[in-house]
TrEMBL record:
SUPFAM superfamilies: Acetyl-CoA synthetase-like. This is Acetyl-coenzyme A synthetase. Its EC number is 6.2.1.1. One of its GO terms (molecular function) is ATP binding. PANTHER family: ACETYL-COENZYME A SYNTHETASE (PTHR24095), ACETYL-COENZYME A SYNTHETASE 1 (PTHR24095:SF14). Keywords: ATP-binding, Ligase, Nucleotide-binding. The lineage of its organism: Eukaryota, Viridiplantae, Streptophyta, Embryophyta, Tracheophyta. Belongs to the ATP-dependent AMP-binding enzyme family. It comes from the Eukaryota.
Length: 699
């Protein structure tokens, strides 16, 4: 099993090994099952695409993939400019250079530019261009409420009108090109509408996942200083009502105290969740969306921007406490998200596409809003909780809208798998054609369940590996082209050169395992961390000079398939949500009774990784159930419910080196109860601490 506990065997690359060679899969010796023939069993190493699927696929064979991949690597400028000019509208073409880059810190500042000098607009390409091409009356958005029975639709031309009204409103309150707009909305149609309206006028949206706490929201507001904050009064998630406006109110007080005051808080009245009379209100600052936006004209001129002008900021977790503002620009991101969407899901005009991710994460940016809309796709938005009112809801929705492409996270797959097949099989699901997975490695047993039970052994699974920073898919199967191995993200997308390096930064070839880096840029790459280019260089480009360092471990098997093995830094993936251990630690130590905290990730049956916190109370305070609860509450209120520790382990002291460094390696082993693998503890200042922690493990 390549997915877990693989041995690290390093082999060095010959210096002249050409990138496409490692992409050639030699699969003849493997035991295979053909898609649609029979269920994939434990013994099958690979699942081959059926002839029927391949025949209709955009990339119908490995040979075709290799041809295109080779072209993209040998001539990136030609490959990407061909796509950019034939599939998008540019007011003005880019200059002489399609791209310019420096990814090597030894040669000066890191710089990535694509299509510089090209003038375009992403909103125009999503809406106006598709409408001009005849999609005016095609459904752009289906919206399904948390409550079964409530839904809505917008065609491409209706969506454009809504976007223009909001764009005009934003202009009327002074939002100009380059201004930041913070968005704190749940999965309502108003969320993609807001993103597109910002893009239309050149404003930079920063969507904050509406599960973040007021403090996290305030931190982001203080960092990017928005002209306007857009939210709604409340939302239903499963049986619960979440009062989002209250959270925004608290965040705006908090940020005002830190010197950043926001003049306008545009609030959508989400009537299914809460009536406006019951919403707390600050006159002068707060404005009901429904009172103003519909009064504005339904057309709005596009603000033409440079390909390298910013499109959005999205904050993500790193290995230190302060979230990083990942900045994506216009042209490269547009070309890259659209192209990856099209190929990785084998997109057809007749598809109905559903991605369960929230627009508050990168997946929702690239593969709910931009990638699909640029392709003129019909996108389903689901407001609610996936298992509400019961674990069959997803398949109910699939049947109701005849969803053909279903893209989700392994954590949801595992939790639905636990609930049992009967919730799946009572629905037809025959519309499904392609499945997708993202957010963390998908374990082979969950892969097989997703493939066999959900997809009826008919649908290829695109296990897409990528990151907030990469903008779009980096390593992913192309359905129809690739024989699949359950649990492997397979091969690089066009134009992407993944390399696996050892701890010294030496590139490895053949069967190997190490740190995943990327050589050369791709159009969707992030360009900087907002306001902190130095941190951008230090975090991503200094660890292995000459490469972009992903923070992930990866192995490559003898057939050239890639197996992602999880983060190698202090970032954990909880239910596919990315969170830094340092962020959770700083929330814990802000508790007046917490002296010290160390947080590690631990394997979790459903969430992939769970959050495991070692906590030392301050002198004189003894650990209690009450303290445990209040520590968890502190994390929930400071970061958000998704970051709440699954386990608090009382630690009278933490294992530290003589220089005072916490030895997380030991804490990870204790958390995983791998007590015979603690390794050398002799360098600890006080080795007795370890025994003490083990004794307290199950209290
Ligand atoms: C898109 C997204 C990025 C981290 C990444 C990796 C993990 C994402 C994965 C995967 C294995 C996959 N990750 N997709 N690991 N297989 N298909 O999730 O972005 O929130 O920035 O997280 O997620 O560890 O480094 P983001």
């Amino acid at each position: 099993n390549h997915n877990h506990n693989h041995n690290h065997h390093f082999r060095h690359a010959d210096s002249n090994a050409s990138p496409p060679s490692s992409a050639v899969a030699k699969i003849s010796h493997l035991k295979a099952v053909v898609l649609g023939d029979a269920p994939a069993s434990e013994e099958d190493d690979v699942v081959l695409p059926s002839h029927d699927f391949s025949r209709q696929a955009l990339v119908p064979s490995q040979q075709k993939y290799l041809e295109m991949y080779k072209a993209s690597i040998e001539n990136p400028a030609g490959f990407w400019s061909g796509i950019a000019s034939s599939e998008f509208y540019w007011k003005q073409r880019w200059g002489d250079q399609v791209y310019s880059e420096n990814l090597d810190v030894r040669r000066g500042n890191i710089k990535i530019e694509w299509f510089k000098g090209g003038i375009t607009n992403v909103c125009h390409n999503c809406l106006d261009r598709n409408i001009d091409a005849g999609l005016a009356d095609k459904i752009a958005l289906y919206w399904e409420s948390n409550e079964p029975g409530f839904d809505a639709t917008l065609t491409y031309s209706q969506l454009l009108q809504r976007v223009c009204q909001l764009a005009n409103y934003l202009k009327s309150v002074g939002v100009r090109k380059g201004d930041a707009v913070v968005v704190y909305l749940p999965m309502l149609m108003e969320l993609p509408i807001t993103m597109l309206a910002c893009a239309r006028i050149g404003a930079v949206h920063s969507v904050v996942f509406a599960g973040f706490s007021s403090e996290s929201l305030a931190q982001r507001i203080v960092d990017c200083k928005p002209k306007v904050v857009i939210t709604c009064n409340a939302v239903k998630r499963g049986p619960k009502t979440v009062f989002l406006k209250d959270i925004v109110d608290a965040a705006l007080i908090d940020s005002a105290n830190k010197g950043i005051s926001v003049d306008v808080c545009l609030t959508y009245e989400n009537q299914l969740a809460l009536k406006r009379e019951k919403t707390k209100w600050k006159e002068g600052r707060d404005i009901w969306w429904e009172d103003v936006v519909p009064k504005y004209p339904t057309s709005c001129d596009v603000e033409w921007v440079d390909a390298e002008d910013p499109l959005f900021l999205l904050y993500t977790s790193g290995s230190t406490g302060k979230p990083k503002g990942v900045l994506h620009t216009t042209g490269g991101y547009m070309v890259y998200t659209a192209t990856t969407f099209k190929y990785a899901f084998d997109y057809k005009d007749s598809d109905v596409y559903w991605c369960t991710a929230d627009c508050g994460w990168i997946t929702g940016h690239s593969y709910v809003t931009y990638g699909p809309m640029l392709n003129g796709a019909t996108v389903l938005l689901y407001e609610g909780a996936p298992s509400y009112p019961d674990p069959g809801r997803c398949w109910d929705i699939v049947d109701k809208y005849k969803v053909t492409i279903f893209y989700t996270a392994p954590t949801l797959v595992r939790s639905l798998m636990r609930d049992g097949d009967k919730y799946v099989t009572r629905y037809s699901r025959k519309s499904l054609r392609v499945l997708g997975s993202v957010g963390e490695p998908i374990n082979p047993s969950a892969w097989r369940w997703f493939f066999n039970v959900v997809g009826g052994s008919r649908c290829p699974i695109s296990d897409t590996w990528w990151q907030t920073e990469t903008g779009g898919f980096m390593i992913t199967p192309l359905p129809g082209a690739w024989p699949q191995k359950p649990g492997s993200a397979t091969f690089p997308f066009f134009g992407v050169q993944p390399v696996i390096v050892d701890e010294k930064g030496v590139e490895l070839d053949g069967e190997c395992s190490g740190y995943l880096c990327v050589k050369s840029s791709w159009p969707g790459a992030f360009r900087t961390l907002y306001g902190d280019h130095e941190r951008y260089e230090t975090t991503y480009f200094k660890p292995f000079p000459g490469y972009y360092f992903t923070g992930d471990g990866c192995s490559r098997d003898k057939d050239g398939y890639h197996w992602l093995t999880g983060r190698v830094d202090d970032v954990i993936n909880v239910s596919g949500h990315r969170i830094g251990t340092a962020e959770v630690e700083s929330a814990l130590v802000s508790h007046p009774q917490c002296a010290e905290a160390a947080v590690v990730g631990v394997e979790h049956q459903v969430k992939g990784q769970g959050i495991y916190a070692f906590v030392t109370p301050v002198e004189g305070i003894s650990y209690s159930e009450e303290l445990r609860k209040s520590l968890i509450l502190t994390v929930r209120t400071q970061i958000g419910a998704f970051a709440a520790p699954d386990k608090i382990h009382w630690a009278p002291a933490l294992p530290k080196t003589r220089s005072g460094k916490i030895m997380r390696r030991i804490l990870r082993k204790i958390a995983a109860r791998q007590l015979d693998e603690l390794g050398d503890t002799s360098t600890l200042a006080d080795p007795g601490v370890v025994d003490q922690l083990i004794k307290l493990a199950d209290t």
